[in-house]
Protein: ABC transporter domain-containing protein
Organism: Ichthyophthirius multifiliis
Amino acid sequence: MMKVKMKLEYFIHILQQLLQDPSGSGKTTLLNFLSGRLFSENLAISGELFLNKRNLTSIEEYSNQIAYVMQDDILLSTFTPRESFQFVLQLKKSKLSEQQRNLQIQNLIEELGLQKCADTLIGGGLIKGISGGEKKRTSIGIELLTEPKIIFLDEPTTGLDSSTSLQVINILKKLAYKGMNVIATVHQPSTDLFYNFDNLLLLVQGNIIYQGRTEDSIDFFTKIGFECPESYNPCDFFMKIMNEQGFLMEKMIEDDDQQLALDEDQIKCQFQERLNLLKQNYEKQDKSEYYNQQNIEESAQILSIYKESSFWVQFILISKRFFINILRAKMSLKLQFFQLILFSFLFIIAYYNIRNINPDTQPLIYFINIRGASYFMVNAFAFQSVSQSIFTFNSQKSLYIREKATNLYRVSAFFWGKCLSEFSFQIIFPILFVFINYFIVGFEANLVKFLITNLTMILLAWHGSSYGFLVSILIPKYEVAIALISLIVVPLSLLSGIFESEQSFPIYWRVISYFSLFKYGYQAMCIVNIFYFFIFIFFFFQQIEFSK
């Protein structure tokens, strides 16, 4: 169990704050807590949080005036930066006119320097898109649309080159000069980045060892015996003295022979002594100079809470976004069409001879072939729809979690919008498959049966998608869900009734068979294409018995 205990009464009002610490020291956990996004049962949180010298009992008291840019840029790859901004603004400020929204978006694009890529797909995976720095600025822009007073950023320069990192930091500095409180965690920034921050907070194992002006940090550590060499990156120096591995390197440089005599416990003990010294010096530090009552009051003005858009507005916008996403994911559509053609090719090869069998003279052979063809159609579409829905659900899950954390829309609006878009496209492929194969293979040329077969395949595809959603919810990790899907789907296929009569199942297997999508799809196909044929077979054998 991790314990986070900090008193941050003067943390919120600073102009631009840099948090630096070794990996695993708690900076991301701290930002998650301050932004109200720390959801874990394994964390015991104690301490006090103050705003305007007022003790906050809940993060939700000021959640409407904060924004949080996470380390990973979680964006919809098939949207452009402009479209991403429009989507958020339409949900957050639905009462604004289209002209007002477009003006605000254009101003934001110019402020972030996104003019050249504003109408280029963001990209990701198989879709070519904008650069990493442009994605980061887009992520920042999405959060700025709510006009927050405080913005948290978790390692905004990670994965960016020095030039792009400096561009991002300059944007943050401009925001700070406009009165916004910018608080960012950075892991070993360059010297140029380091001095762009007004204030510095250093964390080691969840403990603050320095908080103050960035330009004063070198002198502070020099006074307590840690002198930074000239032409040395201050951040690298701080990481060295705050990190146990850095402490070990110091010992190795001081005396190789002495290092050989030190064991792991001694190293940890000596490093803990250094950490205690740093903590004691921080407690002695004069912190009163960092208070500015006027700035705190200005920073703490509560934002007007935008009226939440209606369910129908959210539903329409989310549905529209999902439709656009599906149409622009061309590689995914091509793969599904290829899968459709491949299944059709195999199906026609296997069952083409059905058309050459006369049901009047060879009723049993005809029955067996129709039965097998029906099961092939059911099996192929069930597996395809389950696996496809697992993929689409997991590819958009991170985006949903990020947007839901900002209260962008209702869960119900997202769910029904997702269902509408997914199920609408699930109609196309079953109809194409049946249209291509129904008459070629040799099913009865009956319009009613043809239409009911189409409906059966559509319902089966919807059923499979629902199973995919359920599996994705129960098994959050995509890799695990894909690995285990066969263990879930194959038993349901075996319980469909084609391999063994339901009456011979043990009672517990019979209960499970009611959850099998294969069972209902297969039985529906049999009723449509074989039910009347059973009547024919019955009279056929009755006629044989009578003739005897």
Remarks:
- The CA atoms of residues 2 and 35 lie 18 Å apart.
- Confidence is low (pLDDT under 50) at residues 1-16, 292-305, 535-548.
